[in-house]
Amino acid sequence: MADNTTLPAQVTVIGHPLVRHKLTLLRQVGTATSEFRRLAREISLLMAYELTRDLPIELTEIETPLEVMQAPILAGKKLCIVSILRAGNGIADGMLELLPSARVGHVGLFRDHETLRPVEYYRKLPEDIGDRLVIVVDPMLATGHSAAAALALLKQAGATQLRFACLLAAPEGLEVLTRAHPDVPVFTCAVDRQLDERGYIRPGLGDAGDRLYGTK
Ligand SMILES: O=P(O)(O)OC[C@H]1O[C@H](OP(=O)(O)OP(=O)(O)O)[C@H](O)[C@@H]1O
Ligand SMILES: O=c1cc[nH]c(=O)[nH]1
Ligand SMILES: [Mg+2]
């Protein structure tokens, strides 16, 4: 499995021990839907912490009970989280716990099981997406085509500052995504061994949407 030293500079593997531990629990076949959802939310909150490390800060004057001070606050426009439906919602929910005033956009994509290419079925985005830092979330980066398509349509909609976050990435998906969007920083909690012939990430965690929502 790759680490930060063998990956393109735009890719960050979030190696925090809490993230690694929770991801191991999440992967396990015996992890029930309720537990899977809880772990996905917790990992996503930790990912949001890493993704927002470099947000610009400005000073504002506040009053403590003892005196006036110049105190740091986030500068500029707030964030927008874009969830790639449906499994992206499991990540967006966790991030919103840390970033409660972020706007949320939705892009509905499913993978055609034959071609493994994404099919768009829904899109609703904030009007001012061009003024925001946009964090695009989907738990799985497999072939990379869903993420690449989502980023392309967001750029078309005016987004200029984009980041992509997932739980698991296949090397094949990272290759596709970083070639298509060399300007977009990518954050993942792990890079797994490979894709299998059905386009599943191995060792992986199975179908993230089905495990989040108990549909299989
Ligand atoms: O990198 P790719 O090969 O494009 O695959 C990744 C996509 O596959 C899964 O979605 P799925 O089509 O299963 O839809 P779902 O979220 O509704 O389950 C996953 O959540 C990603 O969106
Ligand atoms: O392993 C995979 C690949 C795509 N989508 C998933 O949910 N899991
Ligand atoms: Mg699915």
TrEMBL record:
Its cofactor is Mg(2+). Binds 1 Mg(2+) ion per subunit. The magnesium is bound as Mg-PRPP. It comes from the Bacteria. Its EC number is 2.4.2.9. 5-phospho-alpha-D-ribose 1-diphosphate binds at residues 86, 111, 138-146, 207. Gene3D superfamilies: 3.40.50.2020. Residues 13-215 form the Phosphoribosyltransferase domain. Catalyzes the conversion of uracil and 5-phospho-alpha-D-ribose 1-diphosphate (PRPP) to UMP and diphosphate. HAMAP family: Upp_B. This is Uracil phosphoribosyltransferase. It comes from Roseomonas haemaphysalidis.
